[in-house]
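Researcher: Excuse me, tokens okay?
***
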Amino acid sequence: MTYDAIVIGAGHNGLAAAIELQKRGWSVAVVEAKAEAGGAVKTREVTLPGFRHDLAAMNLSMFAGSAFFAANKDALTAQGLGLVPAADCFASVFRDGTFLGVSTDLEKTAGRIAALSQKDAAAWRQMLAEFGSDAPHIFGLLGAPMPSWRSAKVAWKAWREKGTGWLYDIARLLLASPRDFLDSRFEHPKVKAMMAAWGLHLDFAPDVAGGALFPYLESMANQAFGMVIGKGGADTIIKAMTGLFASKGGTLLLDAPVEAITLAGDKASGVRLADGRVLEARRAVISNVHPKLVFGKLLPKDTGRAAYERKIEAFRAGPGTMMIHLALDGLPDWRAGEALKSFAYVHVAPDFEMMSRVYAQAMDGLLPSEPALVVGQPTALDSSRAPDGKHVLWVQVRVLPAQIRGDAGGEIAATDWDGAKEAYADRVLALLETYAPGLRAKILGRSVFSPLDLERENPNLIGGDNLSGSHHLDQNFLFRPVAGYSRYSTPVKSLYCCGAATWPGAGTGAGSGFMLADMLGK
């Protein structure tokens, strides 16, 4: 079979590219190695029947705010897409039994902050006011190919409206560490810790340069727009996207691993599947697969692109991640109070010292003694994910080593994840128990995915890195994944890459697939 484009990998970026090219009149086939589409956006019953767990991604706010969703909202809704808003978005719990959280009601958020510091409450309001005028420019930059005339126009427009001083301020924000940025705006350590916890969602400890942007954007965007999750599961976006793709005549092949990208001279001409089938591409082969897998497994080595391949091989993974899925008899009884039961996310990363320590330990190959946690409570918002009166808990353990050299806690002897994962999950639950007493007595079932398990589930998550590559400054913006190739091209003609390893990076925003399709379709 011959198509205009073949997309390798049915994650949200690959599907976004396929749908957008379809709209431009291209014939498109999407081939997926696994038996289900979705990549890191899947929902499955992994504990007990009737309990639906998001295997990796849960927060769909980036998707809801994306250019792809804006362009396809009605069509996706017609395919059954459902989003559930969270009025209480995220919170951090602290060792003294208190919490601080952000709700869409500004007075609630500001009131909680004011109880700690009137000055910080005023600073929060001021930052939100600034965000209202800054956001269009910042999101415009994040939504433009890098580099491009479009990104230059965003900067020009910002300069015309805001002046040179504003551009300097944004440059400082892009380069600053979380600590430096937050210390310059706030005084209370709990306010700063609440915001800085977002840095650990990528791979930014408090003192890592370039880490200020994500805590700033997530904090302000949640305050301004709220958070959303998927009705019935995060896979609602995948079901809607595959449904839309199929309804327009697209070909989706599941359980069809690609063995090789075929070449006609120096040009990508199609793919050969593991079962021997060959699909030809007239115009483009688009890989929504980690570049290391593309140039390490799907293409033969070529001396003509040796420099590029060396740089791809040196592309660093972010820290590993563990997922713990719990079926519960009831929501956690948080020591900080009943109000926490309504929050979509609860961060367990109570201070800068802990965040710095967990990051240093993981980077040294040690199992952190006090893990950093993102606790998702999806059934607080969407009861359809569990049987009546029951709940699921989504526990993401951030910042873990891919390869274990030892245990910073001195308790776990195993140095392989298959041997260590259950013991480490016990450590996580013991820590949670200190913030939510009685949690373990509520557990009806549990399923643990170690960093190795996550890579087995999705080979793009190398070492359990759900970022598809560190977002440190030398691997972001113009340098993602390789300087000179940040606009989705590769040294192989007609072969393009999208996905989290490319600009604008990790998340559910479908940005790279959308932008690539726009560039190819012109």
